[in-house]
Amino acid sequence: MTEGTHGLERLRGQTSLREILEVATSFERSARDFYTDLIPKVSKRIRYLVEELAAEEQDHFDRFRALAARDDLAAQIGAEIRRPASDSQFSDGIHLPDLGDHPDDQAVLQYALGREHAAMTHYAELAATTPEGPIRDLFRYLAHEETQHKLQLEKLYYELVHRGGGV
Predict the structure, then answer these.
(1) Which of 58, 82, 124, 143 has the fewest CB atoms within 10 Å, measured from its CB?
(2) What's the CATH superfamily of 3-162?
């Protein structure tokens, strides 16, 4: 491998915290908008859940925006870090499926489970690789929160699919 090729490979493996925060903000915004649009379309059995998911995604969006706006973090936000292995799967979460005008409860839960899993994995990886400070703390918090969301969704999915709809 030539020096130029090696350097290019190394650069592809790097990203800035600014870019990470921009992608995460977009991920949370698209989730908020997706769930908000779903609220009137889903069955009453899971409407409360979709409303909660929309509110949680709004909270995450607000946290990222506030963090990115902090002047005292400008140097850390500009820092280069190793691109997480989960980056492409997480980034793909910005693209949303069309579940139609009357989405099936199971399809909504499957989508939400996949999204929560991608976020949980990504935020946990970022928490492990981001330098100490408020950004790492936020990634740790979000990794834990997404894990809790995923567990709640798994429980509801089990009730719906395996117990015949007791959501």
Answers:
(1) 82
(2) Ferritin, core subunit, four-helix bundle (1.20.1260.10)
Question: What's the average model confidence in pLDDT over 31-51?
Answer: 93
**Is the CB of residue 30 less than 8 Å from the CB of residue 94?**
yes
**Cα distance between residue 94 and residue 159, in whole Å:** 28
Phi and psi of 156, rounded to 5°?
-65, -40
User: Phi and psi dihedrals of 16, rounded to 5?
Assistant: -100, 155
The β-bridge partners of 14 are: 82
Query: Can you tell me the mean pLDDT for 34-60?
Result: 93
Q: How far apart are alpha carbons 124 and 102 in whole angstroms? A: 34
Residue 157 half-sphere exposure toward CB, CA atoms < 13 A: 15
| Rg from Cα positions in the chain | 18
Token digits of residue 97: 């499926």
59 by Cβ neighbours in 10 Å (0-12 / 13-18 / 19+) ranks as middle
pTM, two decimal places: 0.78
The pLDDT tens digits for 61-103 are 999 899 888 888 877 777 777 777 776 667 666 667 788 888 9
